[in-house]
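Practice problem 4.
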C-alpha cells in the first residue's frame, strides 16, 4: 500500500461494512484538532450527503494552556462554518491524576456515552481516527505488558464498549475506526494535498509516555531492521485475534454440551477438561465465568489457579475468592460458583504449567 490511498473511497468502503442498523445512527466524530482527526473530519464532510447526521465532539483537558483553549475555539469555529453540531467539555487545569492518559481516556468515553445517551437515546456511533501505526503501537505496547491473545488482537474497526474499568454502561458505546488499516503516510499526504490546518500536540514530542517512547525511540530502530515492521505488528494482531476467536468458538461449543456441567450450569465438570490443550482450557474457564458472573474479575490472577485445579486435582475442597458476592468451590471433580462463606479463602499458587 502506498501513501496515495484514496481515503474518501477507503472511508466510504469501511462505512459499508457496518451492520445495517449502525448505518442509520448519527455520527459523532471525535475531534482533537490534531492531523489525524482533522483529516477524518474533512473526509466525513466530503461524504456528508451520503452519511447520517454528522456531529463533532471534543474534550479540552486544559493540559496545554493556552494551546488547549485555542484548539477548542478553532474547532468550534470550523464546525460553525460547516453547520455541524459541536459538543465540547472543559476540565479544570488543577488536580490532574498522575496517570493522565488513563484518566483522559476514561473522561473521553464517559463524555461520549453521556452525550449519546442524553441527547440521542443511545443511538450513535463514535468515529475515531486511529490508523495503522496506532494499531502497531497498541500491539507492541501490549506485547511489552505481557498481554495474551486477547490483548495482542489490538483495536477493532467496530468496537462495542459495554463497560469502563468494570463499570457497566447503561447502554453500549459503539466505536468505529474507518482508518485503522491505513498507513499514517497516507493521512499525512491527504493533509498536505488538501492544505488542511491542524494543531500539533507538543506532548507528543516528549518521551514522558511509553507510547511516545515506542514511537520516537523504538520504532525507528525496528524500521531499520525491517521497513515493514508496522505491517508485521498489525499482522501479528490479526493472527492473535483469529486464534482467540477460534478458541472462543471451540469453547462456546464445548460449554453448550450438557455433559460439561455437573447438576447445574453453575458447576463445571473437570474430567472432560483434562487432556485438553492449556490454551483451550483457559478460554473455556474464562468464557464459563464471564457468562455467569456480573462483576468484573482479575482473570490474569484467577485463571492460573483454576488451570492448576484442572491439572492437579485437589484432595479437599478449596475456595477461590471472586470479586463480589461469590467464590469458586474447587473439588477434584468440579468447579462450582457459590456464595461466599465466612472463613479463609485464597488463590491457589500454581506450581507448574498444565
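Answer key:
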Amino acid at each position: 500500500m502506498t501513501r496515495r490511498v484514496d481515503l474518501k473511497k477507503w472511508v466510504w468502503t469501511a462505512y459499508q461494512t457496518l451492520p445495517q442498523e449502525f448505518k442509520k445512527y448519527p455520527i459523532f466524530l471525535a475531534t482533537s484538532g490534531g492531523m489525524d482527526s482533522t483529516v477524518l473530519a474533512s473526509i466525513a464532510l466530503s461524504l456528508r450527503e451520503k452519511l447520517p447526521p454528522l456531529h463533532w465532539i471534543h474534550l479540552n483537558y486544559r493540559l496545554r494552556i493556552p494551546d488547549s483553549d485555542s484548539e477548542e475555539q478553532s474547532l468550534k469555529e470550523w464546525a460553525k462554518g460547516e453547520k455541524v453540531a459541536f459538543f465540547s467539555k472543559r476540565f479544570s487545569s488543577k488536580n490532574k491524576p498522575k496517570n493522565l492518559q488513563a484518566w483522559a481516556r476514561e473522561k473521553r468515553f464517559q463524555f461520549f456515552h453521556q452525550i449519546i445517551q442524553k441527547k440521542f437515546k443511545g443511538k450513535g456511533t463514535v468515529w475515531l481516527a486511529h490508523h495503522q501505526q496506532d494499531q502497531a503501537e497498541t500491539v507492541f505496547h501490549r506485547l511489552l505488558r505481557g498481554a495474551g491473545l486477547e490483548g495482542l488482537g489490538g483495536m477493532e474497526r467496530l468496537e462495542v464498549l459495554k463497560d469502563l474499568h468494570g463499570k457497566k454502561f447503561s447502554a453500549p458505546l459503539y466505536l468505529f475506526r474507518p482508518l485503522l488499516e491505513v498507513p499514517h503516510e497516507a493521512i499525512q499526504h491527504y493533509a498536505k494535498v488538501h492544505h488542511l490546518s491542524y494543531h500539533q500536540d507538543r506532548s507528543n514530542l516528549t518521551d514522558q509516555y511509553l507510547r511516545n517512547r515506542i514511537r520516537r525511540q523504538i520504532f525507528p530502530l525496528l524500521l531499520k531492521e525491517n521497513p515493514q515492521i508496522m505491517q508485521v505488528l498489525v499482522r501479528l494482531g490479526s493472527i492473535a485475534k483469529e486464534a482467540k476467536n477460534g478458541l472462543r468458538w471451540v469453547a462456546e461449543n464445548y460449554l453448550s454440551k450438557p455433559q460439561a456441567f455437573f447438576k447445574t450450569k453453575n458447576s463445571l465438570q473437570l474430567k472432560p477438561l483434562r487432556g485438553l490443550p492449556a490454551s483451550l482450557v483457559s478460554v473455556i474457564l474464562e468464557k464459563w465465568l464471564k457468562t455467569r458472573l456480573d462483576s468484573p474479575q482479575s482473570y490474569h490472577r484467577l485463571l492460573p489457579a483454576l488451570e492448576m485445579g484442572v491439572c492437579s486435582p485437589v484432595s479437599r475442597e478449596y475456595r477461590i475468592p471472586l470479586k463480589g458476592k461469590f467464590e469458586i468451590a474447587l473439588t477434584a471433580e468440579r468447579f462450582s460458583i457459590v456464595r461466599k462463606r465466612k472463613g479463609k479463602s485464597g488463590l491457589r499458587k500454581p506450581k507448574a504449567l498444565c
